[in-house]
């Protein structure tokens, strides 16, 4: 058996917002206006023993559509009636996350909130097994995730322009730099660093 606790509730007044329960408010730290998030909710009004047994539905509730397994649909009728929304945070006020519209009912329990990451939540050409997340580094709002240095014997014929060396994440957006682009970025950053006032460089000394 699993135990699931709501961390908040969907509220629909003049606007739609997530009311985060006080005991989970610290978990909101780091979220900002404009962030895209994934919200997991429990469709409590669809949670009955009878509805949990429904395994096939007519998609979109249209009987003209052929019966389809619920796992191939977005139907609220499922063995475990939860839903996943991707929404934008319009603003944050205390324990309220004002979000874009969702079709969940007022009072729907929220089970989890996760930041939307393009690399993880959208198809990518870079396979996750090739990403060295253990060496990921966050600088400001930028995440830098290098590629694993494995299977070097397979890379003899790969050019620096083809080798995808670094993933850069900024909010939900992801881009991949080739080894050649990474080299150009390093040179550009070094040039920018050299242009800093001497008084600032003497205080940081990051390249020594």
TrEMBL record:
The keyword S-adenosyl-L-methionine applies. SUPFAM superfamilies: YaeB-like (SSF118196). InterPro entries: TrmO-like_N, UPF0066_cons_site, YaeB-like, YaeB-like_sf, YaeB_N_sf. Gene3D superfamilies: YaeB-like. Residues 4-125 form the TsaA-like domain. Keywords: S-adenosyl-L-methionine. Belongs to the tRNA methyltransferase O family. This is tRNA (N6-threonylcarbamoyladenosine(37)-N6)-methyltransferase TrmO. It comes from Pyrococcus kukulkanii. The lineage of its organism: Archaea, Methanobacteriati, Methanobacteriota, Thermococci, Thermococcales. The gene is tsaA.
């Amino acid at each position: 058996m699993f135990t699931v606790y709501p961390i908040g509730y969907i509220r629909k007044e003049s606007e739609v917002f997530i009311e985060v329960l006080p005991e989970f408010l610290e978990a909101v730290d780091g979220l900002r206006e404009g962030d895209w998030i994934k919200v997991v909710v429990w469709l409590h009004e669809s949670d009955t023993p009878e509805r949990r047994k429904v395994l096939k539905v007519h998609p979109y509730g249209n009987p003209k559509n052929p019966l389809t397994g619920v796992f191939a649909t977005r139907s609220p009728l499922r063995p475990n009636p939860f839903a996943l929304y991707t929404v934008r945070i319009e603003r944050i006020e205390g324990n309220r996350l004002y979000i874009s519209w969702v079709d969940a009912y007022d009072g729907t329990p929220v089970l989890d909130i996760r930041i939307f990451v393009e690399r993880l939540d959208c198809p990518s050409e870079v396979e996750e097994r090739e990403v060295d997340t253990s060496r990921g580094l966050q600088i400001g709002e930028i995440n830098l995730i290098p590629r694993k240095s494995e299977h070097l014997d397979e890379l003899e014929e790969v050019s620096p322009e083809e080798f995808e060396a670094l993933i850069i994440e900024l909010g939900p957006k992801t881009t991949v730099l080739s080894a050649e682009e990474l080299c150009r970025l390093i040179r550009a950053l070094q040039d920018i660093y050299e242009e800093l006032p001497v008084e600032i460089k003497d205080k940081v000394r990051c390249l020594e």
